[in-house]
Design goal:
By secondary structure, the protein is α/β, with parallel strands linked by helices. 54% of the residues lie in helices and 16% in strands. It has 2 domains: 241 residues, no CATH class; 246 residues, Nitrilase/N-carbamoyl-D-aminoacid amidohydrolase (4-Layer Sandwich), CATH 3.60.110.10.
Length: 504
């Protein structure tokens, strides 16, 4: 009967975890009991024969439900990737079980959150890895006071709190009769969470109004101009540009006419989404010249995201953004640095490892493109460079549009920089330096442009200065606790062997 209850807990945890990753409106509440159920079921169930397979299957189910459509894999490949991800994600559960062999009492509750953050963090830094996709901290989008913790610890501190609460709750549930013993750890965990929420609320409440706001706009591509996958086949040279010259001409006219309309309406910055303005390499200079003339005519900044194609080369695709000033001068040209593993990595020429940043007439502007934004340690250059505005072109797909939009809010908080996000097949939006959404437009609903007022000026953050120091501390803490548990378990076993009562 007890084993059946533990299996039921694992099943409930799996369903809650899957829902947490699918929607932040669910995850902001469900992620906490999801991990508590999984962890409690895992701790109570016998390890051999039943424990590992049952817990692994529960975690696999939660991840498979939660990330279906989010990851760019289909069919058997998707489920194989989920299986490998589950093996990695299972490490914190294994570490927790190991630590509890040698450490008892409330210190053992720290093993799971330390290991969880360590695994998420190290996985995000693996070459060609998923960056921060799937980080449990993202489930807390919408809890603005808690999200402010990212300004100090990055996304990792939020994940630590969620998993620590789950660990303490599971530990307390397993020791219910010993109420006096529970009081200290439970109160300590509750006090830390309460203090974080209070500090985050104060940070939001005391945030001063920016003395400068500007009108900004994002323009996206026309609907139904290209067939499924056609833009990607053009970008990598499989479809010669001359065979779709009429479509590209209509595409270019669309962007220039809609940009001119927004400039006439008073936009001081207009941004285009990632790779939507496809152009053959030999026509790029003419397109930029036309953009320069348009910017100079209406005196606005144009963040011109381009997909430049050079067929027949090893890397035929340049995913770039050209920023043009109100005098028509090119301020910078930026190549995307972090390609998505798979198709993009195989065809794209990457940048020099630095974000774009320049002083302009409206302040310091910086740029990074789409998947660049999912690597916090990379875009931290924007916060440390004290940018006043971050322009973020993106190109999402329907299933991931909401999630990827929400991830940008955490980058705004980490770096203390307002963001203008221009997206295709997704959500364009404006975030202030504390991650609050000031405007959002879902282009899948048919809108071609987004216009908003954006407050300029960044705010200094601890994370921009120290980076992932908290995450590295979790890595070190996890290693030390694992070693300490092994040493403690060995010492206890040795004492037991020489104990007179044991020999008797």
């Amino acid at each position: 009967m007890s084993q059946s209850k533990n299996l039921a807990r694992l099943a409930v945890g799996a369903l809650l975890l899957g829902g947490s990753f699918r929607s932040s409106s669910i995850g902001v509440v469900a992620a906490w009991p999801a991990l508590a159920c999984l962890l409690y079921g895992w701790r109570q169930i016998p390890l051999l024969r039943v424990g590992f397979p049952a817990a692994w299957l529960a975690l696999y189910t939660g991840l498979a439900i939660g990330h279906l459509g989010h990851w760019p894999f289909r069919g058997p490949t998707y489920f194989a990737v989920v299986a490998m991800t589950t093996l990695v994600s299972f490490v914190p559960f294994a570490v927790d079980r190991w630590i509890r062999r040698g450490l008892v009492g409330w210190p053992s509750t720290l093993g799971f959150p330390l290991a969880w953050v360590a695994v998420e963090f190290l996985t995000s830094r693996a070459p060609g890895g998923p960056q921060t996709w799937g980080a449990i901290g993202y489930t807390q989008y919408g809890n603005l006071p808690l999200m402010q913790l990212a300004s100090v610890t990055g996304i990792w501190g939020i994940g630590f709190l969620v998993t620590w609460v789950a660990s303490v709750a599971s530990w307390a549930a397993g020791r219910a009769p010993a109420a006096r013993e529970l009081r200290g750890p439970v109160l300590a965990c509750g006090a830390v969470v309460s203090l974080v929420l209070l500090a985050g609320g104060v940070r939001l409440a005391l945030a001063p109004r920016s003395p400068r706001s500007i009108r900004v706009a994002a323009v996206t591509l026309p609907p139904n101009l290209f067939g499924p996958g056609e833009m990607f086949r053009i970008a990598d040279g499989r479809v010669p540009a001359q065979t779709v010259a009429d479509k590209l001409q209509r595409l270019h006219e669309w962007f220039f006419s809609h940009t001119e309309r927004e400039a006439i309406a008073g936009a001081q910055v207009v941004a285009w989404p990632e790779m939507n303005f496809l152009v053959p390499a030999q026509e790029e200079a003419a397109a930029i010249e036309r953009a320069r003339q348009l910017s100079a005519r209406y005196h606005f900044h144009l963040a011109m995201a381009l997909g430049t194609v050079t067929p027949g080369t090893a890397h035929p695709f340049e995913n770039k953004e050209v920023l043009i000033g109100p005098d028509g001068a090119v301020i910078y040209s930026y190549l995307k640095n972090r390609p998505v593993a798979g198709w993009e990595a195989s065809v794209m020429r990457t940048g020099d490892g630095r974000v774009a940043m320049a002083d302009t007439t409206i302040g310091r502007i910086s740029s990074a493109i789409c998947f660049d934004n999912d690597a916090p340690e990379f875009v931290r250059q924007i916060g440390s460079g004290r940018a006043d505005l971050w322009i973020l072109p993106a190109n999402d797909w329907e299933a991931v549009g909401e999630l990827h939009f929400e991830m940008a809010a955490f980058r705004a908080i980490e770096n203390g920089t307002p963001i203008l996000r221009a997206a295709a097949t997704g959500i364009s939006g404006v975030f202030d330096a504390r991650g609050r959404v000031l405007a959002a437009t879902d282009h899948l609903a048919g809108a071609s442009t987004m216009a908003a007022s954006l407050p300029l000026g960044g705010v200094p953050t601890v994370y921009a200065r120290i980076g992932d120091l908290f995450a590295w501390a979790c890595v070190l803490g996890s290693v030390l606790m694992t070693v300490a548990s092994a040493w403690r378990a060995r010492s206890t076993a040795a004492l037991w062997r020489i104990s007179p009562s044991a020999s008797a």
